[in-house]
Write a structure and sequence with these properties.
Order of helices and strands: HHHHHHHEEEH
Largest sheet: 3 strands, mixed
Strand content: 5-15%
Helix content: 40-55%
Shape: globular
Number of strands: 3
Number of helices: 8
Strand order of the largest sheet: 2-1-3
Radius of gyration: 18 Å
């Protein structure tokens, strides 16, 4: 999916986990029950999803190192959705404990991954372990902003933006040549073929839009194309 260096990825994953851990002591009932920017989801839904997907992708790492394949979620997407619905009702102290335990397990799983392990096959997208690690990076970065607890799109690193733009290019609709023009410096990103459409804005805001989020201030582009489903 990308040329991201695994060493850089490991550091990025550690930083994302540390940011989440730093939020746990300050979680309140009001914060957990409050709405997130995602339609129909509270912060509790987002936290429950981060917990579940973190453990799911960590188990891809554990099994890959043993030379075994395992589904991302037992029971597939329905089981994943049911776990989020059940988990979001927990109290703030329960969330803090559960997420701390989950992050410990996630950290231990990825810490065991060595330089020769990243190419091992996994069930996640029928790819390799590096793909699963990159997926966890996306989940950490994007959903940390969805929590609306201080982190914003503008905090995303140029390295993450470059990776996410490449991954999310699959959302560009057929028949459109989409050019993303960062107004804060950096190279243009061009994807697809057909009718040329240019969208401009800050690089993190452009990536946020590709991820289905609503950046502020709005992007420049008339009209903005309707993006396809998440890849």
């Amino acid at each position: 999916m990308t040329s991201t260096d695994p060493t850089v990825l490991q550091h990025a994953l550690a930083a994302g986990r540390d940011r989440l851990r730093a939020l746990l002591p300050g979680l309140t009932e009001e914060a957990v029950r409050g709405p997130s920017p995602l339609p129909g989801w509270t912060r509790g839904h987002v936290l429950s999803h981060i917990e579940g997907v973190g453990l799911a992708l960590a188990r891809q790492a554990r099994y890959a190192r043993r030379g075994r394949l395992i589904d991302v979620y037992d029971g597939g997407r329905p089981a994943r959705d049911a776990a989020i619905e059940a988990g979001h009702r927990r109290s703030a102290p329960q969330f803090a404990t559960a997420l701390a335990d989950a992050l410990d397990e996630v950290e231990a799983s990825w810490a065991e991954v060595g330089p020769d392990d990243w190419g091992r096959p996994v069930r996640y997208r029928d790819g390799v372990l590096l793909d699963a690690g990159l997926a966890w990076w996306r989940e950490l970065e994007i959903h940390s902003v969805d929590l609306d607890l201080g982190r914003t799109f503008g905090d995303w690193s140029p390295e993450f933006c470059a990776h996410a733009a490449e991954f999310l290019a699959a959302r560009v609709p057929d028949g459109v040549r989409l050019t993303l023009t960062p107004t804060d410096g950096g190279q243009d990103f061009a994807h697809g073929s057909g009718t040329p459409v240019e969208v401009s804005g800050g690089l993190p805001d452009l990536v946020a839009w590709l991820a289905g989020r609503l950046p502020s201030p709005p992007l420049t582009g008339d009209p903005l194309p309707r993006l396809g489903p998440w890849p």
